[in-house]
Amino acid sequence: MSEQFSRTERLFGKKAVERLMQARVAVFGIGGVGGHALEALVRSGVGSVDIIDNDKVCLSNLNRQIIATHKTLGQYKVDAAEERMKEINPNVVIYKHQIFFLPETSDQFDFSKYDYVVDAIDTVTGKIELVVRADKAGVPLISSMGAGNKTDPTAFEVADLYETSICPLAKVMRRELKKRGISRLKVVYSKEPPLAPVECDTTSINLPESEGGECKENEMAENTENRRRQVPGSSAFVPSVAGLIMAGEVVKDLINGEKKKDANGKAGLPLSFL
Q1: What's the whole-model pTM score?
Q2: Which CATH number fits the domain that encloses residue 7?
Q3: Range of the domain at 244
Q4: Which strands sit side by side in the sheet containing 156-160, from one edge to the other?
Q5: By CB distance 3.0 to 4.6 Å, which of 64, 77, 132, 269 could disulfide with 32?
Q6: Torsion on CA atoms 204, 243, 46, 98, rounded to nearest 10
Q7: Is 47 within 8 Å of 23 (Cβ atoms)?
Q8: Rounded mean pLDDT for each run of 10 residues along the chain, 274 residues in total
Q9: In b/e form, how buried is each residue of 199-225, taking b as 16+ CB within 10 angstroms?
Q10: 185 Cβ partners below 8 Å, 6+ apart?
């Protein structure tokens, strides 16, 4: 076993590290939550990761997104993430998808290839479709609820979606997934009531080509319903914690043999042996 993962091995054991190295995890959304989840997974020894995002790194990302530095400004997030992950573990296998996951793009993904799915996207339509697709494929998924407009990182908890309260996003997800016959979903959420964001003078930032090209604060909104909503406030210490909690749940589930389900909804072999 590589010395790089020796501390992980001391904590979980050799077989656990081998399971992680055999696993393939898809991280949808490489932002404040997803970026930290991705890095924790790679540092833990997950052997293959899919990274899905079509955004570019811009100045407003610097306050919370782990892949965002002045060096990566203007880069596509999947490119910046790939470079950073390879610096951490040169042997990690990375599948890049420079695309936003939405109902109209979902057919481009084969969920049967994944051992686990991390939902760190922030559009309701995308989140719903992601859960439905993963459920149909029998692939375990963990979903991040609202992390914006919050200030208490200690308030996060892991729960089933239908046991959540207060979180506005969780409320919408409960309603919509119930309509679609989804009976349970592991989520990371917070009961902290979201604050109303303060008006900000800067809502759009253009970078000169010499600094990495044009990068717009609301670039994702061009392809989603985001343009119709207010940009949330965020910090370095809230979305990061949500992402780390998600990664922790994925790692523990993979190690403990969380199982995929077959087409009939029956549990099959442990993920690492499929």
Answers
A1: 0.88
A2: 3.40.50.720
A3: 3-273
A4: 93-97, 48-52, 24-28, 116-119, 141-144, 186-190, 156-160
A5: 64
A6: -20
A7: yes
A8: 91 97 98 98 98 98 98 98 98 98 97 98 96 98 96 98 97 98 98 91 53 46 46 96 98 85 48 32
A9: eeeeeeeebeeeebeebbbbbbeebbe
A10: 131, 141, 143, 160, 161, 162, 173, 177
